[in-house]
Amino acid sequence: MKWIKVKIDYFSDNLKETKAKLVNIFEEVGIKQMEFVDYFSDNSLDYSVNFKNKNDIWSIIGYIIYNRFAQTKLNIIYENVNKISKDDKNFMSEIYTLRCSDEEWQDEWKKYFHTVNITPNIVIKPSWDNYEVKGNETVIEIDPGLAFGTGTHETTSLCVEFLEKYAKGKNNLLDIGCGSGILMLIAKKLGVNKVTGIDIDEKVEKVVYENFRKNNIENNYKVVIGNLVDDVSKKYDLVVSNILVDVLIELLKNIEKTLENEATVIFSGILKEKEDIFLKETLKYNLKNIDRNEKNNWVSLVFKYKKI
């Protein structure tokens, strides 16, 4: 398959607000999974010298399938970015595009993915980096391959922090939109007995299995290829989903069929300005909000399911 890589470098006096606008622009043309180069976190434990607490120029990266609709989608991106320029005199941007194959797409991530402490105790390391374990650190070796999910984005680190807090004593995890399997791997390392990932991308299965092999985990995990929870029949005591809020709202309609009574549900990928919209939607279901955290305009929420 052929792709067009779209990268927008930008500067603004209101970087967080501008980032949210650019995310909306990408979503409008169907880009639901993105990579960001801004700042990973304010955590001094971040390992790699390649990460700064804050870059002067931020970037957003996404991929469009190269087909007859590609140019139309690019035109929409150009037009909407120009609208931001007209409304914000301090906004500056450059848009880069590059055609690439699946293999080239895969190699692109290596430019941005380095070893990081995503929590004080959990380290994410790609296979091409060397890292010496310190103290009681748990090191997860992962290559995103042709699947999304390196662990370096705020939405993932928020999920991991909540997994550290809520995974104890859990038996069965479901990761909806599992990508590279990073949250599944971390859950296993934290003691969850069985983990299942579901993703719409068929390439994910091979990537997840390879990442589990690299981390010497041989059983009690599987991948289901499907749309959200359409093909899920079992129930779980821990569910996590790190996808964009519009997809999470759609997921809510069927989430309860996957939940054991008293199950814990972790949602991430929610822009702060869309948090109230999402919370309003959750009131329609048997979900009680029990925890919240945010990083750099991204919000993660935890719910307890109570069957009535």
Descriptive report:
Helices cover 28% and strands 31% of the residues. It is built from 8 helices and 14 strands. The strands form 3 sheets. Strands 10-9-8-11-12-14-13 form a 7-stranded mixed beta sheet, sandwiched between helices. The chain has a 4-stranded antiparallel beta sheet with strand order 2-3-1-4. Strands 5-6-7 form a 3-stranded mixed beta sheet, with helices on one face. The chain is α/β, with parallel strands linked by helices. Strand 9, helix 6 and strand 10 form a beta-alpha-beta unit.
Labels describing this entry:
308 residues; Rossmann fold; 14 strands; alpha/beta; globular; 4-stranded antiparallel sheet; 7-stranded mixed sheet; 8 helices; single chain; Alpha-Beta Plaits
Q: State the low-pLDDT regions, or none.
A: 40-53
Annotated CATH homologous superfamily of the largest domain: Vaccinia Virus protein VP39
Distance, first to last CA: 47 Å
- Please identify, by name, the CATH architecture of the largest domain: 3-Layer(aba) Sandwich
How would a textbook summarize the main sheet?
A: 7 strands, mixed
Quantity of strands, as a count: 14
Q: What average pLDDT do the residues reach?
A: 85
In short:
The chain has helices at 15-28, 70-87, 102-108, 154-166, 182-189, 204-214, 245-252, 275-282; strands at residues 2-11, 35-37, 58-65, 92-101, 116-117, 122-125, 138-141, 172-176, 194-199, 221-225, 236-242, 259-271, 287-295, 298-305.
